[in-house]
Specification:
alpha+beta; nine-stranded antiparallel beta sheet; 12 helices; 17% strand
């Protein structure tokens, strides 16, 4: 006899059938267990969308404390952080060069930054090299303002009659010709000039190269006649006259000045002044001869000095890093990337440059001994274009304001 199968309760059978139908329906639709909602799906539609990530920070400026060539640095109190960062970047760039001595910037009459490198300090006088020529020009202006010299059209022989007595062909050489380097006097090699027993008479030996005033020829020895004229007209040395009329009002002094065999301070070279005092000469010219509440040079003289007086045979100067539009009274007139500027320039990388539209005076000083380095001049141009002129912009967006 066969065994009887147990029978499910009707209710349980119905429940089982219902579950089976649900499973089959789910498989047929292709659906599975719903996935866990993502955070985006869970976010409330009333919340603001997430913010964009902040931009990556700019690379940090090297700390000036970590620059081995930096000797000393001062920044004006209250300098805005943006400007300070740009100045730190300029100093860091300057400190990469073993020829760099000083970097100073004066804005609207305030010395904003001064940095010294490779053992130099704020109290160390530097050889101005040919920046001395622009100082000579200022002395002529001071002498004219005081009536000691009649005008730039006075013959040099008027003040140095003994030296010119035997040279009637040079009687037409005037101070204007010396100030524009167009005298036509014989060329004397610099070494021969320094070895000569008389630094004045050696410049007059030989025939004129061309009529005075005809063309410009850069020549350092000829500017020695300017300091000789200033000494004769004032009755004191050029150094003493420069101190009395220029640096005393500016709060500075000439630290030293090489003298020739006749006791005349060398024209056009070897005058020593601290950078802090030299940059004030640039500011004096930016202010058209005024310093604080004092008139140091007449505005007429400064204007004439910075006016185009003569064309240059080659406008490219300083190893191709600067473009000159002309020459004033021993001042270079520049076109700096479309912006007018004027400058006193010296061998090896002494650059005192004034940017009137920016109310800015920049002084860069350099180790000058040996052959001038094109690479170093390019480095100075980079400091100007990529750092200092970006720090002191034209107009109201100046970060120093």
């Amino acid at each position: 006899m066969s065994a009887r199968r147990p029978r499910l309760h009707p209710t349980l059978a119905a429940v089982g059938l219902l579950l089976l139908l649900l499973v089959v329906a789910g498989l047929g639709s292709g659906q599975s267990v719903p996935p866990t909602p993502t955070p985006a799906a869970q976010a409330s539609p009333t919340l603001a969308p997430p913010e964009s990530p902040p931009p990556a920070p700019a690379p940090p400026v090297p700390s000036v404390a970590d620059l081995p060539r930096l000797t000393e640095m001062h920044v004006a109190d209250g300098t805005p952080p943006v400007l300070r960062a740009r100045l730190d970047a300029a100093v860091a760039a300057a400190a990469t060069c073993d020829r760099m001595w000083g970097l100073l910037a004066m804005h609207d009459g305030e010395l904003i930054v001064e940095a010294y490198f490779n053992g130099m300090r704020a109290t160390t006088p530097i050889n101005l090299k040919s920046v001395t020529k622009s100082l000579n020009s200022a002395m002529v202006g001071a002498a004219i303002d005081r009536g000691l010299i009649g005008s730039v059209d006075d013959p040099v022989a008027k003040y140095l009659p003994e030296a010119f007595a035997g040279h009637p062909d040079k009687a037409g050489v005037t101070l204007r010709h010396l100030l524009t380097m167009s005298s036509g006097l014989p060329v004397v090699p610099y070494g021969a000039f320094q070895r000569a027993p008389n630094w004045v008479s050696v410049l007059l030996e030989g025939p004129l190269r061309h009529p005075p005033g005809e063309r410009h020829l850069y020549d350092t020895p000829h500017t020695h006649l300017i300091t000789a004229v200033v000494a004769a007209a004032s009755g004191m040395s050029a150094r003493a006259f420069a101190d009395q009329t220029l640096f005393d009002p500016l709060g500075g002094e000439v630290a030293d000045w090489r003298r020739g065999p006749q006791g005349i301070d060398m024209g056009g070279n070897d005058c020593y002044v601290t950078p802090r005092h030299l940059i004030r000469l640039g500011e004096l010219y930016r202010r058209r001869g005024a310093w604080e509440d004092r008139r140091v040079l007449s505005a007429e003289w400064v204007t004439a000095s910075l006016t185009h007086q003569i064309d240059l045979p080659d406008p490219t100067i300083n190893h191709g890093t600067l473009h000159a539009t002309g020459y004033g009274y021993l001042w270079w007139l520049l076109d700096f990337d479309g912006e007018s500027a004027f400058a006193a320039l010296g061998h090896g990388g002494q650059e005192l440059i004034v940017f009137p539209r920016r109310d800015l005076v920049i002084l860069l000083t350099s180790r000058w001994r040996g052959v001038s380095s094109t690479e170093h001049y390019q480095h100075l141009a980079l400091l100007l274009r990529e750092h200092l002129l970006l720090a002191f912009t034209v107009g109201g967006d100046n970060p120093s304001e």
